[in-house]
Amino acid sequence: MRVHTGVHTVFLLVLLAAAPAGAKVSAEEAARLGKDLTPVGAERAGNGDGSIPAWTGGLTTSPPCYKGEGSRYCDPYPQDQPLFTITAANAAQYRDQLSAGQLAMLEKFDTYKINVYETRRTAAFPDFVYEATARNAVNATLEFEGESLKNAILGFPFPIPKSGQEVVWNHKLRYRGVGGARWNNQAAVTPSGAFTLVEITEDVKFPYAARDATPESIDNIIIYFLQIVRAPPRLAGQITLVHETMDQVREPRRAWQYSPGQRRIRRAPNVAYDNPSTASDGLRTNDQLDAYNGATDRYTWKLIGKKEMFVPANSYKLHSDEYRYRDIILKGHINQDLTRYERRRVWVVEANLRPRTSHMFKRRVFYVEEDSWGIVLVDLYDNRDQLWRWQEMHTFQAYDKPFIAPPAMETAYDLQSGRYIAYSMNNEAPETIERDFPISYFDPANVTKQTFK
Question: Does the keyword Signal apply (predicted)?
Fold first, then answer.
């Protein structure tokens, strides 16, 4: 994944790697998993005033409205109504539970609001993920300044984190099944609210998540990713292929791109970091997909701690196929009447740009929900250290799996220009399905065959 420029190269990483950047915990600490901690490391108990309940196993039963694999994930809580709404008028009352980006949105747009619902701790994973997480807790380490993950497989590598990088690795390797096929439709929205929909399919395989996987058997690849632009016609046929590595010192990310005009697939080391992502009109970088992906070597990472915040959760309504994209995508921001926020405990991680490296974001603050290890909010700062952009992940539980499904939507707002991009949408497209692709499907020699499938 690394572009080998400047002094921050793999060679330098090796020289600096005198000790692990992250280390396994003791057996005594790990014994807390499944007791006062959930099997993935969240606090099992609720909070003092009861606004966050205890975790009791999550949502693992499908509601009557769900019709099975391939059908739309429906809302298991249709009767829920907002407990209260945060607006610019009362934002000061909740300042400590909001991110800088949320406060900026409330200040910038009179129409922006945050509807807060009852907290329902729905996150759950299969038992074999819990078992693997317990093994990882006493075995997994990060080496070479955190770019090389060792002795972890299948489960969350660091359920009791000691560093910011460990939290980010938990996000990158959170369990999402063995693979899947989804539509990731996106819209780059102008200040007037105009947009052109870009239709994208994405196929993914998670070798790390296979039940019979070992650190040796996956051949250093944790994710295979194939993205194809389907519409509009001027962009259709563009392909991006990524093989994401677990030990990025041993081998950086492999990436390729195919352009219909050139009719050939080429290596693409620029598919990383702050290079613009596919058809994003400059509103999203490559490493902003899935809130954050890829190498962590351009930043120093600080684990600030844990706090209670109002964050997107159980976003079934936003995911509904009852709404068209025009119902969702509005001037200035998405339709906040369709969103759901809950009071959750989140890990706060701050990333600061390393000296003599480059990135358009000087500083990033990540908010990582404790039950799922998913990043849900990101504050993004420019080179003057001024708040510039802001991200949200609107997630929900795939109750029939169980795991947290691909997001109903991701948003990245430019607070200075008034523009934003909404992506990971499939309201007017087929539902995401779990699928176990063969590795050969992601062979660079074969991917162009997928364009017209």
Answer: yes
Whole-prediction pTM:
0.94
**Would the pLDDT of 75 be above 60?**
yes
CA distance 161 to 158: 5
Domain coordinates in residue numbering, the chain? 10-450
Give tens-digit pLDDT for 310-334.
Answer: 999 999 999 999 999 999 999 999 9
Check pLDDT > 60 for residue 12. no
Q: From CA 138, how far away is CA 28, in angstroms rounded?
A: 10
From CA 68, how far away is CA 400, in angstroms rounded?
Answer: 8
Structure tokens at 281: 């009109």
Contacts of 309 (CB under 8 A, 6+ apart): 97, 98, 99, 343, 344, 345, 346, 367, 377
165: region left, alpha or beta (phi > 0 left; psi from -120 to 50 alpha):
alpha
Longest dimension (CA), the chain: 61
What distance in Å separates the CA atoms of residue 440 and residue 66, rounded to the nearest whole number? Answer: 33
Fold for 10-450, please state it: outer membrane lipoprotein receptor (LolB), chain A (2.50.20)
Task: Classify 319 as helix, strand or coil.
Answer: helix
Cis peptide before 191 (omega within 30 of 0): no
For residue 5, is pLDDT > 50? no
Give whole-number Cα distances, 188 to 285, 324, 414, in Å: 13, 16, 11
